[in-house]
Design goal:
This protein is an alpha/beta fold. It folds into two domains: 86 residues, Rossmann fold (3-Layer(aba) Sandwich); 124 residues, NAD(P)-binding Rossmann-like Domain (Rossmann fold, 3-Layer(aba) Sandwich). The chain contains ten helices and eleven strands. The strands form three sheets. A six-stranded parallel sheet has the order 1-11-8-7-5-6. Bound molecules: guanine. Its EC number is 1.5.1.5, 3.5.4.9.
């Protein structure tokens, strides 16, 4: 393997250690940071993600509350719950785990969360602020990617960043964030043809599609930084990314593993956003 492995797990662990000090500082000022996590229904993946988020909070000393609602909950009941959380001073961050059941509009729910407590960074106010390069809550996965690059001393300025995927959660905000950091940005998606024409030009390649084996060695530039956001199960039930790791790692300069790459960074950035929300109160 020629590529250096970007150890998201270790970078995230170091960040959590540093956060413990920040939590102690806030506590000494009389403020206990608090995160409310709303989980609707019984989706096993959502349950597992939420469990991880609560555990992370416990590790760094952030107060967390899990609010569980049945699959049959009405949109109004959920919106009323969010309104109550918006009003509570001891809750600094609110996260409603997605996806939501079909009777509930995700858009309405996201917009009901106060932008000051929107630790997911999904509210249009925060997205608009990001567009105009103002201080805001940045969605956790794109924010985690930037933190990773900082941790390995890869500068983004002037680089060609190619983002594969245009989701609201990853691709679009990641593109904006790279642009804000003065990269030249290309956004690719399912209709981009041929995809490899673009990926081959990337100094930094971010792949967030959800298809295993989408990117092969022939699709990248030698020495590229490859960030794999994908989380797929292969035929053996093993967790794999969107990048054919075994071959791409022979040609890339840096590469993230799956698991242990972007995932832990996404989780830690939720804590970062919650701390940021709490720190704004004392500033
Ligand atoms: N479901 C999958 N990823 C996410 C995320 O980052 N935030 C929320 N709220 N739900 C998700």
């Amino acid at each position: 393997m020629t590529a250096k492995l970007i150890d998201g797990k270790a970078i995230a662990a170091a960040k959590r250690l540093n956060m413990k000090t920040r939590v102690s500082q806030l506590r000494s000022e009389g403020l206990l940071p608090g995160l409310a996590v709303v989980l609707v229904g019984e989706n096993p993946a959502s349950k597992s993600y939420v469990k991880g988020k609560i555990r992370d909070c416990e590790e760094v000393g952030i107060h967390s509350e899990l609010i569980r609602l049945p699959e049959s909950v009405s949109e109004k009941e959920l919106l009323d719950k969010i309104s109550l959380l918006n009003q509570r001073d001891e809750i600094h961050g609110i996260l409603v785990q997605l996806p939501l059941p079909k009777q509930i509009s995700e858009e309405k729910v996201i917009q009901a969360i106060s932008p000051e407590k929107d630790v997911d960074g999904f509210h249009p106010v925060n997205l608009g602020r990001m567009m105009t390069n103002q201080d805001c809550f940045v969605p956790c996965t794109p924010a985690g990617i930037m933190e990773m690059l900082k941790a390995i001393n890869v500068s983004v300025t002037g680089k060609h960043a190619v983002i594969v995927g245009r989701s609201h959660i990853v691709g679009k905000p990641a593109s904006q964030l790279f642009l804000n950091h003065s990269a030249t940005v290309t956004i690719c998606h399912s209709k981009t043809n041929p995809l490899s024409n673009y990926t081959k030009q990337a100094d930094i390649l971010v792949v967030a599609v959800g298809h295993s084996d989408l990117i092969h060695a022939e699709d990248i530039k030698p020495g590229a930084v490859v960030i794999d956001v994908g989380m797929n199960r292969n035929s053996e039930g093993k967790l794999v990314g969107d990048v054919a790791f075994d071959e791409v790692c022979q040609k890339a300069g840096f590469i993230t593993p799956v698991p242990g790459g972007v995932g832990p960074m996404t989780r830690v950035m939720l804590l970062e956003n919650t701390l940021k929300a709490a720190e704004k109160i004392v500033k």
